[in-house]
Amino acid sequence: MKTVLTNKNISIRTRRRALECYIEPILMYGCEAWTISKQTQKKLEATEMWFLRRMLRISWTAKKTNDTVLEEAHTTRLLISKIRKRQATFFGHVMRRKKLENLVTTGMLEGKRSRGKQREKLIEGLADWLKAGKSLEAIEATKDRKKWRTMIANAVKQGT
Asked: What is the pLDDT of residues 88-124, one digit of tens each?
């Protein structure tokens, strides 16, 4: 794909679509179950910028800011919002099923908690992204599909 993505005879729009069709699905495989920390988010954003810089043939030693690279590519950062949207739709699906996946996703399993700092849960990251306040509000919102879909759409519009 390197020859196609770096070919200057092909428009940037077409190369961007090729990136979205062939590379991003591989990158985002299984992203519905990821918990995205600040560090992971920075790495994903860096990966997205690396793809764009390679497509535009901008060397890493060139003193170009990410904003100028995004302007040259006629795009914005979309990867994190795509991942969050996938996570939110998957989470809504799991929460409406009322099966074992529901218990695992919410973290409401019986037993003792492990020592040390507790791991970040998927629902906490989604509640923060959706600006739902507490995670319980997000869980309640999943029961009504229309409300859940509008929450997701509003969060995607606002970006990350």
From this structure: 888 888 888 877 776 666 666 667 777 777 677 777 7
Tokens of 64: 């170009």
Q: What is the value of pTM for the model shown?
A: 0.81
Q: Which two tokens stand for residue 70?
A: 């995004």
Q: Give the burial class of 35: count Cβ atoms within 10 A of its Cβ; 0-12 exposed, 13-18 middle, 19 or more buried.
A: middle
Q: Which long-range contacts (CB under 8 A, 24 or more apart) does 14-20 make?
A: 15/55, 16/55, 16/73, 16/75, 19/51, 19/55
Tokens of 143: 């029961």
| Tokens 């988010």 found at | 41
Q: Please list, in sequence order, all residues whose beta carbon lies within 8 angstroms of the beta carbon of residue 36, skipping any fewer than 6 positions away.
A: 44, 80, 83, 84, 125
By the 10 Å C-beta count (0-12 exposed, 13-18 middle, 19+ buried), 84 is classed as: buried
Contact assessment for residue 56 and residue 12, using Cβ atoms and an 8 Å cutoff:
yes
